[in-house]
């Protein structure tokens, strides 16, 4: 086994042609999500003989790949998503990056890929943010979204785990995910398609899960809804999650419920953070299955008063309406719920350093 690379070993090769200040400033005024990219990227290679090697921060540039590269055929790919924030005192910080690093290792194991050491993962993110710190938007709700990912880079069409991998981190300046005042989204329950099954890759953050969710998401849009919500693949009864966000239910008695992590649901770090925050507020949070039919009955009887989705990109998104077949039911008053919005504010305040959260969540760069 090759010795692991030290996190300190990142080489910095500055971009010879960073975007000029004026053009950058213009792009940062209204960056949207996932369209404005920074000047650099992190890159680490892995091979069977060398292990992890060649850790660098380099100019962001197109990849040149042989058309037989394994990832293009068998989708051996995993990714992560986390944000760097400007704190109230102007320092930059990552939020729970160690948790992303561990989840990346779990995803790697499931996809038969090598596990990147936690310190290399975190340092790749920190080093990239340091290189591209001028890309932090000044606008309200702005942050730098980091996208670590790893691809099977061996040039070989045989079906087996690749013998070579390329890990990269790209960074995107982002504004608030949803523009304007908080809006509640509408969901479409997919009765035909499922996202993940027991023993599959539902708990791994891999591109393949997203590929499998796109048809159902397109169906949701066609039905006039914003997002699809998936049910379990066996009984087609229990609510699991959205295509890329976890889900919570809020009841009139003040308790919360979220589907349990049974292997088919992605263990969201936002999900985990909100469970912790809600419990710290004295609320009861149950991780237990919830049937789609019960959701509708409880919304109609008034037993359920709020529902929300959560994930790094959009943080906390209120759910206003749900369509199941030809029937549509409304959650609470159809707008953002009170507890939903107070949990969102509590989490954002911690991420931006205006409130103190649990030890270790905010990691200054
Ligand atoms: C990334 C992701 C989430 C949210 O995870 P966070 O760590 O909160 O960003 C939820 N569901 C799926 C399918 C995901 O890929």
Brief sketch in words of this structure:
The protein has 365 residues and is α+β, with helices and mostly antiparallel strands. The chain has helices spanning 21-29, 71-74, 97-110, 118-131, 207-222, 269-280, 292-301, 338-351; strands at 11-12, 36-37, 40-47, 51-59, 77-79, 82-86, 92-95, 143-152, 164-174, 185-190, 227-231, 239-242, 246-251, 256-258, 285-287, 304-311, 315-324, 327-330, 362-364.
Could you walk me through the main structural features you see in this protein, from its secondary elements to its overall organization?
The chain is of the alpha+beta class. The protein folds into two domains: 7-174, Aminotransferase class 4, branched-chain amino acid transferase, N-terminal domain (D-amino Acid Aminotransferase, Chain A, domain 1); 185-351, D-amino Acid Aminotransferase, Chain A, domain 2, CATH 3.20.10.10. The protein is built from eight helices and 19 strands. It has helices at 21-29, 71-74, 97-110, 118-131, 207-222, 269-280, 292-301, 338-351, and strands spanning 11-12, 36-37, 40-47, 51-59, 77-79, 82-86, 92-95, 143-152, 164-174, 185-190, 227-231, 239-242, 246-251, 256-258, 285-287, 304-311, 315-324, 327-330, 362-364. Strands 1, 2, 3, 4, 5, 6, 7, 8, 9 and 19 form a ten-stranded mixed beta sheet that branches. Strands 10, 11, 12, 13, 14, 15, 16, 17 and 18 form a nine-stranded mixed beta sheet that branches. The longest helix has 16 residues, at 207-222. The chain starts with 10 loop residues before the first strand and ends with a strand. The site of pyridoxal-5'-phosphate has 13 residues, from helix 6.
């Amino acid at each position: 086994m090759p010795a692991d690379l030290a996190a300190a070993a990142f080489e910095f090769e500055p971009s010879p042609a960073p975007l000029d200040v004026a053009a950058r400033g213009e792009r940062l005024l209204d960056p949207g999500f996932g369209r404005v990219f920074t000047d650099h990227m992190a890159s680490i290679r892995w091979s069977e003989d060398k292990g992890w090697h060649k850790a660098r921060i380099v100019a962001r540039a197109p990849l040149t790949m042989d058309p037989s590269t394994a990832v293009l055929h068998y989708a051996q790919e995993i990714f992560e998503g986390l944000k760097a924030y400007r704190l109230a005192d102007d320092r930059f910080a990552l939020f729970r990056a160690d948790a992303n690093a561990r989840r990346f290792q779990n995803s790697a194991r499931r996809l038969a890929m090598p596990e990147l050491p936690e310190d290399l993962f975190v340092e790749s993110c920190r080093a990239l943010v340091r290189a591209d710190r001028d890309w932090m938007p000044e606008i309200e709700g702005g942050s730098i979204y980091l996208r670590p990912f790893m691809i099977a880079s061996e040039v070989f069409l045989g079906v087996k785990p690749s013998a070579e991998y390329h890990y990269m981190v790209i960074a995107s300046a982002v504004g608030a995910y949803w523009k304007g005042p908080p809006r509640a989204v509408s969901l479409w329950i997919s009765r035909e398609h499922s996202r993940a099954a027991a023993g599959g890759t539902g708990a791994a953050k891999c591109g393949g899960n997203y590929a499998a969710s796109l048809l159902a998401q397109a169906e949701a849009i066609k039905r006039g809804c914003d997002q699809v919500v998936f049910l379990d693949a066996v009984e087609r009864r229990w609510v699991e999650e959205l295509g890329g966000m976890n889900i919570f239910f809020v009841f009139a008695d003040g308790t919360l419920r979220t589907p349990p992590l049974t292997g088919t649901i992605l263990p969201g770090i936002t999900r985990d953070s909100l469970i912790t925050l809600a419990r710290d507020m004295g609320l009861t949070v149950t991780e237990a299955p919830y049937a789609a039919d019960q959701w509708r009955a409880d919304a109609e009887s008034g037993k359920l008063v709020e529902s929300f989705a959560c994930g790094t990109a959009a943080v906390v998104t209120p759910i206003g309406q749900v369509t199941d077949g030809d029937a549509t039911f409304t959650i609470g008053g159809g707008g953002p719920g009170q507890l939903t919005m107070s949990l969102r504010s509590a989490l954002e305040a911690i991420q931006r350093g205006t409130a103190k959260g649990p030890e270790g969540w905010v990691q200054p760069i």
